[in-house]
Design a protein that fits this description.
The chain has 677 residues and is mostly helical. It has helices at residues 14-33, 41-80, 87-104, 139-143, 147-153, 183-199, 203-208, 210-236, 240-243, 248-258, 264-273, 277-307, 317-351, 358-378, 383-401, 404-435, 443-468, 478-486, 492-499, 505-527, 529-536, 590-607, 614-617, 623-628, 632-636, 655-658, 663-667; strands at residues 132-136, 157-161. It has a two-stranded antiparallel sheet with strand order 1-2. The longest helix is centred in the N-terminal third of the chain and has 40 residues, at 41-80.
Length: 677
């Protein structure tokens, strides 16, 4: 029997991939080309439901295939040590190829159109389409139908829900191919991405650079949004046809949308190359908070637009301060909500024995975390902000109370969900460039936006770094600033914000421009990270102290294909790495030191089984309360603190600040203070 070589069959090459893509596209078109069987109305509706079910499965099959293809290609890149493209770039490219095949191959059946007009006496808002249409078929229309259908349709009313505006030039079913409701991104895909970012945060270096991270995230994101929007508004005045389509508030809104960064490629390469930990913390910390700031900022601008009086013709101070107040209220309330539910989960896992049932414990952890997002959205707050700070609290407190099995499960689960959700979104960005019907290409606006986005990022990084260096040790060097500038890639959050509303021509232009900026930054800027690090002389191979390694999992998005380090300390391209720099007290953020002392003395003893206990740290008058809130497990622990690894080691806190000595420190270990649960 002859041996068949897979390489000869083209399985390892491009022909096999193209054949699979063509086959999937054919299947997808097959779902549209099925004609309804003639017969009774029930059989026709059964066939229609079956075709819809087949189409939905083909859509899911398409994206599943794209994810499989991405995973296999990532493995090939890692195996061959290829580093010119990241998996998100691969997902986008594969999505573009599949979208083009779907769009331009095979037949495209037309949609059956029935023009309707409002019945006499019906009143509706002309600026907003109705949510539901009740269609009553008249006798004249029924007579044009087949005899069987006419008998069934007579005296029936059909309800059609609002889906969106359709361009008259493209009345076909292409908009149903491989597209999803934009709310899917916000409700299902973004929460695990944001939660994983917070849950896998290296808090030691995050808190060490807390002041700079907050400055770049809060002030920098706002500066980027306003500079980008203002520059676009100024540029479009050169083009009269653009000036009449976009108001200043429109461009400002787009500036807020596109200010959301997602340096997925940068962080993956940083993680595997072991780039300077402070640089990693700055890029990662800014990206974690940046998404939350961007989404709240867009809501504040929308709030100002709702309160703005067009007849006023100028800046309205009252509406501005109302929008600022709403921004602060929404952000603060969302932060408090997320932190509260994170603390509640920590208390549940500390004062119950649910850890004896790891499966139930993991379920509680996941459901409480997702509940944070749903409550925030249901109460008109921002779920992204809530789930972000819930993840931080879960990692810092709840993680320490979990059983070993639950620690591994939660770490692996959110790492997996993050990887799948993120690559799904990037695949969808590529596919939707050809299949989503609400794109509007304007070359002038797109070119202006690319320039404005770059200038807006520069206005964020360089001036703020200059100001931060006055009171910061170590300083943010010029080369670090260049890397921070190039780390402003756009990704999932910007796309999700842009695709949420595509009713008007301006919003459709925003979606198209955002998609192109995401694709360009991920493929071209993300693919040039390694040469940029070499060009700017950024030290690599800077290993942190092993005892300070992040416990809740690998850093956010860590699947890049990059350089490998040899045992001698050199990278494979011969670059000599620098040794790690010792941490000093001067490098710690004053805000981190203030919070660290309070956290170690009061919050950690309250929410975890760590030492010192509240019996050691609270005043004598609070001793009864302290005894009630201290578990027997805390009392039986040795002076070393946690019985097993504790995420508290990631905080940059002085050992001399955190423990309070005294007679009660000895008393707390006595059996009389034990508490039975």
């Amino acid at each position: 029997m002859p041996n068949i070589s897979l390489s000869k069959c083209g399985i390892q090459g491009k022909p096999f991939i193209l054949v699979l893509l063509m086959f999937l596209s054919y299947l997808l078109h097959l779902g549209f080309c099925q004609e309804l069987m003639s017969g009774t109305p029930d059989s026709e509706y059964d066939e229609k439901a079956l075709n819809t079910h087949r189409l939905d499965n083909l859509n899911l099959l398409l994206y599943t295939f794209l994810l499989i293809l991405t995973v296999v290609t990532i493995w090939m890149f890692k195996h061959r040590r290829l580093r010119f493209l990241h998996e998100t770039g691969l997902a986008v490219i594969y999505g573009l190829v599949v979208g083009a095949i779907i769009r331009y191959t095979g037949p495209t059946p037309e949609v059956r159109v029935l023009p309707v007009v409002p019945s006499f006496g019906t009143h509706y808002n002309h600026s907003v389409p109705p949510d539901v249409l009740w269609l009553q078929l008249s006798k004249r229309i029924i007579e044009r139908s087949s005899k069987t259908s006419a008998t069934y349709l007579n005296n029936h009313t059909f309800v059609y829900t609002f889906k969106g505006e359709i361009d008259n030039t493209s009345l076909n079913e292409i908009d149903q191919k491989a597209t999803f409701d934009p709310e899917v991104f916000f409700n299902l895909l973004l929460p695990p991405i944001i939660f994983h970012a917070a849950y896998s945060l290296k808090r030691k270096y995050f808190f060490k650079n807390l002041g700079a991270i907050f400055t770049f995230a809060f002030v920098g994101t706002t500066v980027t949004a306003f500079v980008t929007g203002s520059l676009i508004w100024g540029f479009i005045q050169i083009f009269p046809y653009l000036a009449k389509d976009f108001s200043f508030l429109d461009t400002l809104y787009f500036g807020a949308v596109i200010s959301a960064t997602d340096p997925v490629t940068i962080l993956a390469i940083f993680s595997e190359l072991h780039v300077d930990v402070n640089l990693y913390a700055l890029v990662f910390g800014e990206s974690v908070l940046n998404d939350a700031i961007a989404i709240v900022l867009t809501r504040a601008i929308q709030s100002y637009a709702e309160k703005y009086n067009p007849n006023h013709g100028g800046f309205e101070m009252v509406a501005f301060f109302q929008a600022v107040g709403e921004f602060l209220l929404i952000f603060t309330s969302s932060l408090v909500l997320g932190s509260t539910l994170g603390i509640a989960t920590a208390l549940l896992t500390k004062f119950t024995r649910i850890r004896d049932f790891p499966l139930l414990e993991t379920c509680l952890f996941v459901l409480m975390s997702y509940t944070t997002f749903l409550i925030a959205e249901a109460t008109d707050l921002t779920g992204i902000v809530s789930v972000l700070f819930c993840g931080m609290c879960q990692a810092h407190y709840t993680y320490n109370n979990l059983s070993d099995d639950s620690r591994v499960r939660t770490k692996s689960l959110f790492e997996l969900l993050n990887f799948l959700a993120e690559n799904f979104i990037f695949s969808y960005i590529g596919v939707s460039m050809f299949t989503f019907p609400k794109h509007h290409f304007d070359v002038a606006f797109i070119c202006i936006s690319f320039i404005a986005v770059a200038l807006g990022r520069a206005a964020n990084i360089y001036p703020l770094s200059f100001l931060l260096n006055f009171g910061r040790k170590p300083k943010i060097s010029r080369n670090f600033q260049h890397v921070l500038f190039f780390s402003g890639l756009r990704g999932a959050m910007a796309f999700a914000l842009a695709i949420r509303n595509t009713m008007s021509k301006s919003r459709q232009t925003f979606l198209t421009t955002t998609s192109l900026i995401v694709i360009g930054s991920v493929i071209f800027v993300g693919g040039s990270v390694t040469p940029l690090l070499t060009c700017f002389g950024i030290p690599v191979g800077v290993d942190e102290d092993p005892e300070h390694a992040a416990l809740p999992g690998t850093p956010h998005r860590t699947y890049g294909s990059i350089l490998q380090q040899t045992p001698g300390g050199n990278t494979i391209d011969g670059t000599v790495t620098e040794p790690p720099r010792p941490s000093t007290q001067s490098e710690k953020s004053w805000l981190a030191r203030i919070w660290g002392g309070f956290d170690t003395k009061y919050m950690k003893p309250l929410l975890t089984h760590s030492k010192p206990t509240l019996i050691d740290t609270l005043p004598p008058c609070c001793l009864p309360v302290a005894r009630m809130l201290t578990t027997s497990e805390q009392l039986h622990l040795g002076n070393g603190g946690q019985g097993h690894s504790d995420s508290d080691i990631e905080l940059c806190i002085d050992d001399t600040d955190s423990v309070r000595s005294g007679p009660r420190a000895f008393a707390s270990t006595q059996p009389g203070f034990q508490r039975f649960l």
